[in-house]
Amino acid sequence: MVSYFLINKKGFFIGKILFLILAIILPEIGVANTYYISTIGNNQNKGNLDSPFRTIQKGAYMAQPGDTVWVMEGVYRERVSPPRGGTEQAPIVYMAEPGKRVFIKGSDVYTGKLKPEGNKVFSCSLSTMEFTDDCYFDNANPFKVPVASTPWERDGEPEGKEGIVFTLGQVFVNGEMYRQYPLKNEMKEHEASWWYNEEKNAVLIHFANKLQPKKTQIELTTRRRIFAPHQRGLGYIHVIGFIMEHCGNQYPRNFWETKENAQAGALGIRCGHHWSVMNNVVRYAANIGLDCGAEGPDNERINQRIYDPEEVIGNRIENNYILDNGCTGIIGWGSKEMVVKGNVVMYNNNQMYRGYKRYESAGIKFHNNIDCIVAENLVSDNFTYGIWFDNKYPNARVSKNVIVNNLRSGFFLEMGDYDFGTVLVDYNILMDNKENQIYIHDASGGLFVNNLIAGTRKMSNTGGTGPGRIKEAYGQAVYIRQVGSRTKTYHHSFYNNIFIDNDINYDINYPMWRSGEQRFLGNIYPEYQKGFYINSASDIPKPIDESYLAEKISKETGADVFGNDGRVELSLNQWQKFWELHSMHFDQDARKIENMKVCYIPEKHSVTMTIPEELKPRKNARWNENYKLRFDLRSESFPGPFGELETGSHSYIIYDGIPPGKRGELPCINIF
């Protein structure tokens, strides 16, 4: 077994040891205080180990820079809102008891009467519930707030149709998330579902067949967020080791201009700086799991100013589980020098947002993040894109991530007009993502180096009907096109990557008009006769049409196969000939290898790869100008992300971090 160096467990074992050390020494520190929280405590107590507080919020009120709020095992149902931050030398630390399960929930247990409605349907009156997270412009009760964009590819009230209304509420029965239906009749037809009766302020629940409703635990979301200050811009706060679940936050539709829809995660830094968010589980938020940027306009009545990305600086999001959230796992608009590292990001967009005004769904999605690093994360099985950089990404790096089996593209780059080498995407596993491994539109400056890009199948007629939805052909390992006039799509570079088992390797727009030079060197391809496309999506001016462009490509390359969908398919030799006319790096040293094979084994977090021919390292100085001295550059490297490659079949461990576990099960947190 060959070890692949992406992610290892050393950091987690060190983290566990650090927890134990802190558990011993923090109470002994003379200057700082440690406030203890227990489910059997009382807020009138002293807050020490023998006389703990009852709520985390009480500890937050007491904590000053340098203090620790130490939360013992149990379930806490509250929104925690730190009133102050710490300092560089004296952060405020919120820490769950190491090795224990410490829940903070945005839900409460329903203790009222269940009214039978027939056929396993019972109603719960919300008149007995308390909605204490009351700071919003709309409503503290999540069930009374419509979702800004309806999920499940349905056009609801925000799009103009009457009667289709989803709410921010959530229902959990014995820990299982039940699905919301916007119409009563639909709820009646589906078990494990619910519907909100606005007129009676009641939730109707259709229980699963084998359950006895009166013997179940019903949890209803009563809070919009779980851990987020009211005051924006606090700094030096550490949040470590909690399980946060169940909240009713909003979909961030037009978050940049609609205050009610600001990016507001279950766990949110609220435009803060120098936060450290480590070893937490964040799951089952109605929409956003964790937000770590400048949010947009304030969605709270305090109505604070909008923060500049330069102010939201130095945050670290490390070693967390971000699972099963409604639209997006980790999101951030506007941040500088942020590190997102070693996280497990899976099963997000469980509400299946897709289509018009549903553009904020991904495992990880960032806008305008400056000098940020996204590294060593497992981003897998999200019902959407894996990682999406949108609208500015200067000096960013996406490195050593495992991005596999996501429902849409693995990595999506959008909207940024830059020179070569602005964002580095290197040493990643991009494999078995359904639409593309790499998708780019209206963006420039991507530098893709030493990645494995594999397992793409042809698709057609994806998308759907409705406003802004078009049927499109995906299924390319790398797909680059212009779809609007906002910016340009050019200056991308692909160096030293391994392409295996893709029905289409590249589909790239013609390098004129709003497109331009692209660069290629040192890539490895399978022995395919075809699989290289030039498309017409370059914002071609009238009266030039696709037939003219196809004829032009044919003359440049000798290609005799014409596409009927605005694309021309080329062989590798024709591809090289085409780009020699348009680029200084035209894949002149690309290598074709017969019978290459690759297989991803998720149970073992490994890739088995067969390379029948010997490969040697390539000199990287050839593309040094693309790095612009911003990133480390090795003098030479083997193609792909594995380091030295041996001839034959070998297995490479591609992930050795915190174990992801199965969907619906709480991850094992004993390593924390």
Automatic annotation (TrEMBL):
<dbReference type="InterPro" id="IPR006626">
    <property type="entry name" value="PbH1"/>
</dbReference>
<keyword id="KW-0472">Membrane</keyword>
<dbReference type="InterPro" id="IPR011050">
    <property type="entry name" value="Pectin_lyase_fold/virulence"/>
</dbReference>
<dbReference type="GO" id="GO:0016837">
    <property type="term" value="F:carbon-oxygen lyase activity, acting on polysaccharides"/>
</dbReference>
<keyword id="KW-0812">Transmembrane</keyword>
<feature type="transmembrane region" description="Helical">
    <location>
        <begin position="12"/>
        <end position="36"/>
    </location>
</feature>
<dbReference type="GO" id="GO:0005576">
    <property type="term" value="C:extracellular region"/>
</dbReference>
<keyword id="KW-1133">Transmembrane helix</keyword>
<dbReference type="Pfam" id="PF13229">
    <property type="entry name" value="Beta_helix"/>
</dbReference>
<dbReference type="InterPro" id="IPR052052">
    <property type="entry name" value="Polysaccharide_Lyase_9"/>
</dbReference>
<feature type="domain" description="Right handed beta helix">
    <location>
        <begin position="315"/>
        <end position="451"/>
    </location>
</feature>
<dbReference type="InterPro" id="IPR039448">
    <property type="entry name" value="Beta_helix"/>
</dbReference>
<protein>
    <recommendedName>
        <fullName>Right handed beta helix domain-containing protein</fullName>
    </recommendedName>
</protein>
<dbReference type="InterPro" id="IPR012334">
    <property type="entry name" value="Pectin_lyas_fold"/>
</dbReference>
<keyword id="KW-0732">Signal</keyword>
<keyword id="KW-0964">Secreted</keyword>
